[in-house]
Design brief:
The complex is a heterotrimer of chains A (about 300), B (about 160) and C (about 425).
Chain A: H1 2-29, H2 33-39, H3 49-67, E1 72-74, E2 84-89, H4 98-106, E3 120-125, E4 149-154, H5 163-167, E5 173-175, E6 181-183, H6 193-197, E7 203-205, E8 220-222, E9 234-236, H7 241-244, H8 251-255, E10 261-265, H9 272-279, E11 281-283, E12 295-299
Chain B: H1 2-12, H2 34-37, E1 79-80, E2 86-87, H3 92-99, H4 101-109, E3 115-117, E4 125-127, H5 130-133
Helix pairs in contact in B: 3-4
Chain C: H1 2-23, H2 27-53, H3 68-81, H4 84-92, H5 96-99, H6 102-123, H7 146-173, H8 180-206, H9 219-245, H10 254-285, H11 291-297, H12 307-325, H13 327-330, H14 333-351, H15 353-356, H16 375-404, H17 409-428
Helix pairs in contact in C: 2-16, 3-6, 3-8, 3-9, 4-8, 6-7, 6-16, 7-8, 8-9, 9-10, 9-14, 10-12, 12-14
The chains are: A alpha+beta (about 300), B alpha+beta (about 160), C mainly alpha (about 425).
């Protein structure tokens, strides 16, 4: 008889506890050991050498399974006494976009749904250089250069005072000692605050799982650079970190048919970049924002 | 005084400096030119060629010069500098630099033209010759077809 | 130790009793709760689709990378901050009509913050990596990143707005006097905290030189002014509904509502004044940065998606301001309610889509993309609004009986005493209904 009276309260208590427990089950049951490891992976800068090796081995196996190619994932650190900078000779750019697609191939971008490109070439009417509001991004004539227009390629400017690094809530992006601003793709939470903060639209987002055709994949990658990314992580130009730390020119520099693009070490007085800054009229985009970009545009003499 | 001047001149046109250039872009089957020209007579009259090399249209200061101002008359395998020095095709930049001095300085420093490969350390590097981008007979760049634009996001 | 045990026991007992309260009610209550749960279920399903596909399932892209979710977030943080307009009159000025209802207002702020946090969570690309944002466990970028400040401020405010009302309600349930030395500091801190959460949210946008539409010093005052209009307007409407629907007699005087509406009038004036200041600065200086304003108010290069929205919002705000300004319209319930509705919708448009989207148009390289939320975003957003409403309903279902004095430990003791007697009578066979 006593039971009858307390049944309703007991029932409610048991029901609420079961509901809570029931919700937790799907959360934990679908967790494989690998997913649990992924979930708990530390920030790249906090990993010990051993942990980095383990992560690299795991990634190499995964890429082998997914793309059928043996990847070489480098974690090479910055070369001492280097500060990389880029030069772009505006008088010579013809807007052919070969740099865009060389970058796409070298850096394993998603080709469609979504289509990611780190370099964007703007077409501006002659007589105007700074007001980008009148730029045309989607020009598609038969032949370039078109008369009366100039072309301005824009990519991540690798700022010395990067606004994106300032706003990231989880330190997923930071500036390496050699001046390259990098992203730890496994640490990024996808809040896109950095995209809102970048004045040059240098950062792009993987809105879905990337689509990279297997036969076009580039297997020599750097962990912080061009390794195949995952959905909902931010990415950006890394000055081809996998190449420059070994002393090779970035892919866009090699692809340009008119020799517009130049690259060098600002700390080496004999480098091409120092020659340019000493002798040519250089300027940087949106300098008034105080971002101190390391991407120098210049004209002849 | 004269010797000093000569010294400077040879320094200026890159004598003694070595650049890792890519092989010059020769037309297929024509080099070495001496295969034909060793046995031919030299005709120094400025004219438009009618029998051979008719595909070459000279459009490079043609009112002031013609073929034998750059190609040595006696040894067609070499190019001829203004002071009479003969240089191989792999050093053709010295010839271009005689008129295009500013650009030549920039090319030597690496900021004109194209370089690929390694810029640091001991890796292989390749400098492109002037002739790789500019056809010496018709140097003006021809317009090319651009790669496709990015996919434009659909407005709502 | 004994004291702690006692507190835990009391809390557990309180929780069990409130569960009964929450699951029993009128048929209107059941209908309301079940329809909200249906909307929540739908929203959850759509969110799962977004979780599987990635954010490509929304209409956001690289050009406009924040959309409906962050727009709603901004609005709801403002609505939550408005609870301070109830706290100040009650605890600092001891204005009696508002003192009766301040606890309900704080619970409204708590539900609003929960909604805001949910909106940020669905907007994150990788929600599974949320732990990266926790201080000490993850790598929180404090104090450089304003988002880190926002996480701390919002959670702190949520904690305060749950601690204070629940503490006071539990104490009232047990008919014990609250320990004011313990709770008053928390109450007083919640006042600058309310201002802080909305200032931090404003600074989030303000600190980006890349977006000239947002990079204006006037942003934080504008946010506060519009928050102090919209939040109290929602509160006024909600309290009238409660007054009508609740079976318990809860004292919500008209005077309390009129006092709040007076505060809304001042806040709306400030809001309109600050807006005109911004418009003057842009349209008179005519720099290149006027582009975003042109897009919003006139249309830019033929793109004018937001123009009808913002002009309706402006009209609604001005009409509402006039309604609130004139005492006759302010003190009549019908016009008051009309004014409140106009403000709620007008400020939502002005502060939500009318604020977040023009920040991205044109983008830093001059491109114009017109964003409009798609079906999935609308469904997920409705799901979250429904969650907030459900949480608020459940909280009210417990808070109102307590405030009205009809749900208390005293009545429980009396009832259980009576039941004991019934039981004994049952066993002895001398059962007599008392």
């Amino acid at each position: 008889m006593l039971n009858r009276r307390y049944t309703r309260r007991e029932f409610l208590r048991n029901a609420s506890l079961t509901a809570l427990g029931g919700l937790a089950i799907p959360l934990f049951s679908s967790c494989t050991k690998e997913e649990a490891e992924d979930f708990l992976q530390k920030h790249f800068r906090e990993m010990t050498l051993e942990e980095k090796r383990r992560v690299i081995a795991k990634l190499e196996e995964r890429y082998l399974q997914k793309y059928g190619r043996k990847f070489q994932i480098s974690t090479q650190e910055a070369v001492p006494d280097t500060l990389w900078a880029y030069g772009l000779e505006l008088s010579r750019c013809i807007g052919c976009r070969r740099c865009v697609y060389a970058c796409v191939k070298e850096n394993n971008h998603s080709r469609h749904d979504p289509q990611l490109q780190w370099i964007r070439v703007l077409r501006l009417k002659r007589g105007n250089l700074i007001n980008l509001e009148d730029s045309e991004h989607y020009y598609n004539p038969d032949l370039v250069p078109e008369k009366g227009f100039i072309y301005l390629p824009v990519q991540c400017q690798q700022c010395q005072e990067p606004p994106c690094v300032k706003v990231c809530p989880v330190h997923a992006t930071w500036q390496e000692p050699d001046g390259i601003v990098v992203v730890d793709y496994n640490w990024c939470i996808g809040c896109r605050y950095c995209i809102a903060a970048c004045p040059y639209k240098g950062r792009v987002f993987n809105w879905a799982e990337p689509n990279i055709p297997r036969e076009e994949i580039n297997p020599s990658v750097h962990y912080l650079g061009n390794r195949p990314r995952m959905k909902c992580a931010v990415e950006k130009c890394t000055f081809c970190i996998q190449r420059v730390r070994q002393g090779r020119y970035p892919a866009c520099v090699e692809a340009c048919p008119t020799g517009t693009r130049k690259f060098g070490n600002l700390l080496d007085p004999n480098s091409e970049m120092r020659y340019i800054i000493d002798r040519k009229r250089v300027f940087r985009l949106k300098e008034d924002l105080g971002t101190e970009p390391k991407f120098y545009y210049f004209f002849e003499a | 005084m004269l010797s000093l001047g000569l010294c400077f001149a040879s320094f200026a046109n890159g004598a003694g400096e070595e650049f890792p250039v890519a092989p010059p872009p020769m037309t297929e089957g024509l080099f070495p030119c001496s295969n034909c020209h060793a046995s031919m007579e030299v005709n120094r009259k400025k004219r438009v060629l009618k029998e051979e090399h008719t595909d070459i249209k000279l459009h490079h200061a043609e009112s002031m010069r013609w073929c034998l101002d750059c190609h040595d008359a006696k040894n067609r395998d070499k190019l001829r500098l203004y002071n009479g020095d003969l240089i191989p095709f792999t050093e053709s930049y010295r010839l271009c630099g005689e008129c295009h001095g500013f650009v030549y300085n920039d090319w030597k420093a690496g900021i004109h033209g194209k370089r690929t490969g390694y810029f640091m350390g001991s890796g292989k590097r390749t400098y492109y010759l002037c002739a790789h981008c500019h056809d010496p007979h018709q140097p003006k760049f021809k317009p090319i077809k651009p790669e496709p634009p990015p996919i434009k996001p659909k407005d709502s | 130790m004994e004291k702690l045990r006692e507190i835990l026991n009391e809390t557990w007992h309180f929780y069990k009793r409130t569960l009964t309260l929450v699951v029993t009610g009128s048929s209107l209550y059941y209908a309301w709760c079940f329809s909200l749960m249906a909307i929540i279920g739908m929203g959850f399903l759509f969110y799962m689709r977004q979780h599987d596909l990635g954010l490509i399932a929304t209409k956001m892209n690289d050009q406009v990378s924040w959309g409906l979710y962050i727009a709603n977030f901004t609005y709801l943080v403002g609505a939550a901050a408005a609870a301070v307009l109830l706290v100040i009159p009650s605890y600092v000025y001891h204005f009696k009509p508002i003192k009766e209802i301040v606890v309900l207002g704080e619970l409204f702020a708590a539900s609003s913050i929960v909604m805001a946090i949910l909106f940020v969570m669905v907007d994150l690309g990788r929600l599974d990596r949320f732990w990266h944002m926790l201080p000490f466990i993850g790598l929180m970028n404090f104090p450089q990143s304003l988002l880190a400040w926002d996480v701390l401020a919002l959670n702190g405010y949520l904690f305060l707005n749950l601690l204070i009302p629940i503490y006071l309600l539990v104490k009232f349930y047990y008919r014990k006097e609250p320990n004011w030395k313990f709770i008053l500091p928390f109450i007083l801190i919640s006042i600058p905290m309310a201002v802080a959460i909305h200032t931090v949210t404003a600074f989030l946008y303000n600190g980006l030189p890349a977006r000239p539409f947002w990079n204006a010093s006037i942003l934080a005052p504008r946010f506060l002014a519009s928050a102090f209009c919209s939040g109290p307007a929602i509160i006024i409407i909600i309290f009238q509904i409660i007054r009508k629907v609740s079976v318990h007699h809860i004292e919500i005087e008209d005077n309390a509502l009129f006092k709040i509406s007076e505060l809304i009038a001042y806040a709306m004036f400030l809001n309109l004044f600050l807006l005109s200041a911004e418009i003057f600065k842009e349209y008179y200086s005519q720099t290149v940065h006027i582009a975003a304003f042109k897009y919003l108010f006139e249309g830019l290069h033929g793109h004018k998606e937001l123009v009808p929205w913002i002009w309706s919002a402006m009209t609604m705000n001005v009409i509402a301001f006039i309604i609130f300004l004139i005492p006759q319209t302010r003190k009549r319930l019908t016009t008051l309610n009309l004014g409140c509705l106009l403000i709620i919708i007008g400020v939502w448009i002005e502060k939500g889509p009318g604020f977040v989207i023009p920040g991205f148009v044109p983008d830093p390289l001059g491109e114009i993309f017109e964003y409009f939320p798609n079906h999935l975003e609308l469904m997920v957003s409705s799901g979250i609004w429904a969650t907030g409403l459900l949480i608020f309903t459940l909280l009210m279902k417990v808070a109102i009986p307590i405030e009205a004095g009809e749900f208390s430990h005293v009545s429980y003791i009396e009832r259980s005493f009576r039941r004991e007697e019934e039981d004994q009578g049952w066993r002895k066979g001398t059962f007599k209904k008392i």
